[in-house]
Specification:
23% strand, 13 helices, 3-stranded antiparallel sheet, single chain, disordered C terminus, alpha+beta
């Protein structure tokens, strides 16, 4: 019997079933292959195998005919009205997954300039590195000492006992990441690693995949003129199975004049920052202790016991994701008199 994975749709409060793309393959890979053929498992979660899987799924003519049509767009929940390209232009799988949208119209931001916004259309879990239940979450999703790179002791000290948010992008999602805060880029680096899947089964089975996968780390200082005023913020863009790469393409207006991220540049909140090419992937945000308060609905949803989440089974505690839209409210500044549930 296959276990359903459910999440909560944020604005309606509806409990939804997630269609897990390639679920049987992932469960096979992360159970019998991982246990009985570890060398094959390591090979299949390497860069070359991941890119080949991406090619077969998104670039072959057959895949394009299957995925690049109107039926797939609607079944995957792609809103054609928000896309800048026409239906006729979205004629391949890759074009669907790398689509651009009218985000000013369809993904408005909170008016509060200090509000932290979601970096992606994703399923999110929030928590504190200093909270007992979140330590259990941390021990499964990532190993903190490895997440930012052991050589970067400075940042490990800055975010120690702080707060985190994990954003899981499913293959059907809009795959541009946006800046969650306004501020100055004070560090930017890449960490090499594997290409583990972000399917819930893989996360539960393969301990700390987000600190094992290849990832890009950007550190923002928001305590600068024009910044969001929520301290230092780390944004990690984590590759996953079938991701060919992460293109850094920051644009202040729409998708015009894309620029690579570099140390010293100032970024505005809610702007396109990067693009995953293509597949499923993950963003992680880290905050300094006491600088932000997560939206209450995200915290409350995480503890719902009436939702069939694979994470709840894997972690032995209620652990439910909320479907969140890019540029929507994630957290507010300052956490005075605030306690995690």
């Amino acid at each position: 019997m296959e276990l359903t994975h459910q999440y909560i749709e944020r604005f309606s409060g509806k409990v939804c079933n997630e269609p897990l793309f390639g679920d049987r393959l992932i469960r096979w890979l992360y159970h019998p292959v991982r246990e009985k053929a570890p060398q094959l498992f390591q090979l299949l979660t390497g860069q070359r195998s991941s890119q080949l899987l991406g090619f077969f799924n998104y670039d072959l003519a057959l895949a394009s005919r299957i995925f690049g049509n109107q039926r797939f767009l609607r079944e995957a929940g792609v809103d054609l009205e928000e896309c800048l390209a026409s239906l006729e232009e979205l004629d391949t799988a890759r074009k669907v997954f790398e689509r651009k949208i009218d985000y000013d119209l369809y993904r408005p931001m909170p008016e509060d300039e200090q509000a932290v916004v979601s970096p992606a259309d994703a399923r999110v879990i929030v928590g504190s590195l200093d909270e007992v239940s979140s330590v259990q979450i941390k021990g499964k999703f990532f190993a903190y000492e490895e997440l930012l790179g052991k050589q970067n002791r400075q940042w490990l000290d800055v975010f120690q006992s702080g707060d985190f948010a994990i954003f899981r992008l499913t293959p059907d999602k809009y795959h541009y990441n946006h800046t969650p805060v306004a501020g100055k880029v004070v560090d930017y680096y890449e960490i090499d690693g594997s290409y583990h899947s972000c399917n819930p089964q893989a996360i539960v089975t393969e301990a700390t995949p987000f600190s094992k996968n290849r990832r890009v780390v950007t550190i923002f200082d928001t305590d600068v003129p024009g910044g969001s005023g929520v301290g230092q913020v780390a944004m990690l863009e984590v590759v996953a199975l079938m991701i060919g790469g992460i293109d850094q393409c920051y644009s202040r207006r729409s998708y015009d004049d894309p620029q690579p991220i570099r140390v010293g540049m100032f970024v505005e909140r809610g702007c396109p920052k990067s693009l995953y090419r293509p597949g499923s992937s993950t963003d992680v945000l880290l905050f300094e202790p006491g600088r932000v308060a997560f939206a209450g609905d995200l915290l409350n949803n995480r503890l719902r016991q009436d939702v069939n989440s694979r994470f709840s089974v894997g972690f032995k505690n209620p652990l439910v994701e909320t479907d969140i839209r890019v540029r929507s409210l994630l957290a507010t500044a300052d956490k005075q008199d605030y306690l995690f549930i």
